Amino acid sequence: MHYISTRGHVAAQQFSEILLAGLAPDGGLYLPDAYPQVSSADLDAWRSLSYADLAFEILSRFATDIPAEDLRMLVRKTYTPEVYCNVRAGELAEQITPLRTLEEKDGGKLVLQALSNGPTLAFKDMAMQLLGNLFEYTLSRQHAELNILGATSGDTGSAAEYAMRGKKGIRVFMLSPHRKMSSFQTAQMFSLQDENIFNIAVEGVFDDCQDIVKAVSNDLSYKATQKIGTVNSINWARVVAQVVYYFRGYLLATTSNEQKVSFAVPSGNFGNVCAGHIARMMGLPIDQLVVATNENDVLDEFFRTGIYRVRKSSETYHTTSPSMDISKASNFERFVFDLLGRDAERVASLFRKVDTHGGFDLSGGPGSDGDEFAKVAQYGFVSGKSLHQDRLATIRDVHARHGVTIDTHTADGVKVAREHVKPGVTMIVLETALPAKFNETIQEALGHEAERPAGFGNIESLPQRFVVMPADAAEVKQYIRVHTGL
Ligand SMILES: *Cc1c(COP(=O)(O)O)cnc(C)c1O
Does the residue 365 lie in any domain? Predict the structure, then answer.
């Protein structure tokens, strides 16, 4: 399998070559030159597989340059009940992403799929844990090392650190805004004592952290000598690892391939639901892909109107589902590429327009850039939006009726899913975090704290390891240089 850029850069690349890459050289995102197709016979054969072996079947079609026995070893090491152990009462850790039926509505079932049982209690572990093992494997074969530099406001940083801790050849330098994360998230990251993990608390806000990462990445010679890499949400391996749990959810929720299911996905950067789109393009019988946003409704606006309009920082809200607080959806270009019939030239010109004019319009209306919005429904996409009061009401309702506490992001998913349930079609809501991570809002909704999984009880009182630094790229560079010795 070869990978191409959404903006037309032609040098076809293999999976291992883009594993450590971010954007393609032309500023586009990598996608396979064609999606591998899955047959009904494949689905039948996969019904009895463990999560790890299902992951092998799917990933082996994308990572064709990794020897099969090595890939099988990597997925079996990644997807174990020991890693995904933070299950709720009544869930089976062996299933890795267990389902829980909430209710029947209009003859359609509403089901939660738990993706947040990994070490950091959010779905980003599903892909990041695999990435950690893939990186270690490829680096050791190349006798190479890698220094991951990232910026986080919470979930990504901790998922990356727990995936890379103790890994040979890898160091993580993670910038976070000093005293701006929740105490739980801060403790998760800063309590790691591994020597290859470096927490840098920046005196500033998240945007300052991101600016520093950009400044360092733009210094190409520094980047090369310090062997800097990133693990942000456009990373192809992260997206493809997420494809697996759509298959898993489908196979757990159905008994025959005649049945269709829908997925509702709490969305920010469009990474998670992009994986659902890819699963559907591979032939998985998905009816609808329901994009749920919070107050930051860039994606809901597009899927309602055909207009993609990125927000300024002053129009980007800090909400109680903070991992969905985005001003633009960085993986969206992958879907637009398919929507436009893979016309890379048009994709390039539309996303240039995003840079110069803040967006584009595919509504087909006067002066628009195209009429492809009419085709969006063929791809199964629908959307909706959920606000703070909706989150509170949904958390209360699900707790009262089903005895289950859901987190704020999942609540956005449930709220919007309920607006799209159809008779006879199971709607799977992806549970993207456990409520313990977002306790303040659980307290507000329910009047008590969320239960914490075993081992997280006193996480805030563990010793913390971090340095505080001004928002200054030169100081961060110097710090990295000293600690890599390169
Ligand atoms: C990252 C994250 C999201 C958003 O996922 P995208 O892939 O950016 O759309 C939703 N919920 C939680 C809890 C997250 O950590």
Answer: yes
